[in-house]
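Quick one:
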Amino acid sequence: MRTPTGLRAAVVAALLGLAMTVAGPAGSVRADGRAPAQTVGDITGFAADGPVYHLHAGRAEARVSFVTPRTFRLELAPDGTFSDPTGKDIVLPQGAPPATRWRDTGDAYELSTSQVTLKAFKAPLRFELRRADGSLVWSETKGLSWDDKTTTQTLARGAGEQFYGAGMQNGRGNTSHRGHTTEVGVDYHWDDGGHPNSVPFYLSSAGYGVFRNTYAPNTYAFQDPVTTSAQERRFDAYYFAGPSAKDVIGQYTALTGKPFLPPLYGLEIGDSDCYLHNANRGERHTLDALKVADGYPQNDLPNGWMLVNDGYGCGYEHLAETSQGLGERKMKLGLWTEDGIAKLADQVKAGQRIAKLDVAWVGDGYKFALDGCKDAYRGIEDNSDARGFTWAPESWSGAQRCGVQWSGDQSGSWDYIRWQIPTYAGATMSGLAYTTGDVDGIFGGSPKTYVRDLQWKSFLPAMMTMDGWAASDKQPYRQGEPYTSINRRYLKLKESLLPYMYSYAAEATRTGVGPVRPLALEYPGDPKAGTDAAKYEFLSGQDFLVAPVYRDSDTRDGIYLPKGTWVDYWSGRTYRGPTTVNGYSAPLDTLPLFVKAGAAVPMWPGIRSYQDRTAHSPLAWDVYPQGRSSFTLYEDDGVTRAHRRGGSATQQVRVAAPRSGGGDVRIDVGALRGEFHGKQTARPYRFTVHTGDAPRAVELAGRPLKRLPSARAFRAADEGWRYDPADRAGVVQVKTASRTTGRAFALTLKGASAVGGRTPGAPAVVATPGGQEVTKGAPTAVRAAVTAGTRDAQDVSVTLSAPRGWTTSAPVHHRRIAAGATQHETLTLTAPRDAAGADPVTVTATVRYRAAGAWRTAVHRFEVRAVPPAPAGDTWASDLEWLSAANGYGPAERDRSNGESGATDGAPLTLAGKTYAKGIGAHADSDLEFFTGGRCMSVTADVGIDDEIADYGEVAFSVEADGKVLWTSPKLTGASAPVPVDVPLGGARHVRLKVTDTDGKKSGDHGDWAGARFHCAR
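Output:
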């Protein structure tokens, strides 16, 4: 073996044959007008120049450049002339190249570092990569090929090889691309199947990744074989070999840039709207944004920043005063850079700290978009001491170092939630650490979809709500109760988890791996992690598994929990993975959320803004003890760039506990190491330790802590502990007086246990069927089932609790439920006569019992719906209560045609010259839900577009019963004759009357259900 030391350009091989293989006769042209594809031929020459190697194949030349021992660049110039359109835009300067060596093995040249060997077969030229131990990484099945517009690499696909990456791929990405074709390029398609913020990088479970160094669109077909193409007549790719996907992402981001570290306000929810002459909202001024900002503290809701010119053609005025006013409300000023960034310097000096880019001036993405992201980011930093912070709708490789990637102008719906779930976790596989979309979109949506969308997006690092485009504003306090309270609950949880999320953000700047992760990243050996079994869930950090509800339902099926013990965040119930949870009770206020046993989660309790923190604020640790685990908290000033000069600190917490069952739990809190402005030199600590059983004693730094008798005593004390068996299956709460952060200390729970208690499996479980309905004003039976664990449940009591105004029956008692047995209960619940049927109601079933020598509590929360008494006889649809009502413009009208934005402002219902006294006037898209309670045989009506529309509009009508479509009309226009409706209902309990737009215009879609009547039993 020879090394190339001192060798500038040694040609070590003679001509071996034909310059290249031509895939078609000379001079032929393909049917599409393109030149025929060609494949590189035999090696005709070889030269070594340090870590750079040249391989000639006739006119074509390949060049191999090693960057690190596991990263190299492979280029091919079909005409022998190399080019680099990306220049210095994407790839950052790297360190000194590694030591390399080469040898001629007869049939191939082997180009090696200490970690990998790239084998270049001679006849024809074909590449293969192996590790130092000889194991195969990847292998070309044929040489690089090209035509006049495209270059392609063809790789063998392993039997179980999986593929991820390609940037933000809407509706996919956290599951494997195997068997699919993935497009990489800007398409301005924001919905399912679109690919904004594409990245020409993919990684393989075989232990490698590939970055195509280009601005050209790419197509990756992960078939057998794998073909990856770029729309350019040059080949330029970097390869990364690593033991894991995380390592490969780290190498890729070392080359193209680590993700930036957002300021703390960038991890809080933001608000966006146009406030200067808003065409959708009437005459307003920029300072009016402060009135909207006031709604957040008035409703006790967090908000970190506001874009105040969010809308096309929307400028601004009084910028400095607006910034000052937002600052007084603990918010930062942002602007939509619709027309470029020429004014950015002055805007930043006036207070702007967030720049949202837009396709209106970014153009086709690629270089222009990447430059816009970098320039806006740098403009904030050049004119303030703040960190650059941008939002980009279309970007490219390298944009992770300057912005949040935003998935586009989307519409709120259940489908929107469903396909967004895999989008953001999947983007992490391409080094995009901060990806997100508007809460409930900018169009459409409903109070329910807003709540469901906000719940899970609270576990993304970045989130924003956008107004001004939908029919009504979308701040989280607009929908009233119970929606505002639910939104408050999750936004405050997001605030309290800021130290957890910020620590993962800091980790991303070191490793390239973002906080939001697909299961396949953390559990690469799990055969289900990269499949549809885990498509609609993700990990937030390593410790939280989030399984959003993406249908209009109070239950969630198909929650896949990988290996380990998982704890229900709300109830404390434990699950042993791998397992799939079906029928999970998820009332509207409950996001299915699980915590990995072993977690130690840092929290800032009781804040609405990160600015609420003071020098004496406590740091809380939420601990789920099992075995040995740790977490390293990262802290800095949260706003400036001082952390880049070393201004930061870390504090490690280590937990030692039994793997299962009883034993001591020890929590070692390390010293806070490092310095930054505002660092706490002392602080009190809070601990919530999920043990499932009370410890005998608690010691702090070797001395006993006092056990406090009640929650009230605990709140009043400076220091002490208490055990609450009713809190999430049994929690130990501990608080300390202020302690110096410069010295480590230990907290020990003597005779405690791992999660699940001293007797694993002993806790009982209570469950209820989903979809239970309660008749207004009448006692209604609700069902529950109590299942004892591995020990008998004794002295059992079952109670219901419901919101104010609802009435529950007396508790049910049982002396004993045998181990493993299930006791079915029927209790009664009465809804107020004036209960709103559209609003969800959460009821709690609580079981108190003794098992395994201790009093225990099991809690189950479930949703019920208040429904009116079922109709009797023939009943006009317009006289019935609507359980829910969605309408395309303004409210649906009773006994009138669809009017404007107000109620009862429509005209008489008229179809084909006939006026109807009764009926419903709607506007597509419209969805009205009725409770028929199984008593109605049919529904009748005449349907069509109201005469007031004349000859335009286009809609279809449909009748649904209990989730099944029973009837659909043909497409109807304003010129169509009315269609009679007579649909048997078959004893359905719920009926929906829908009007759907069919031409995408939603103009003139005034659909009438004229004379609509239900025919029911008396």
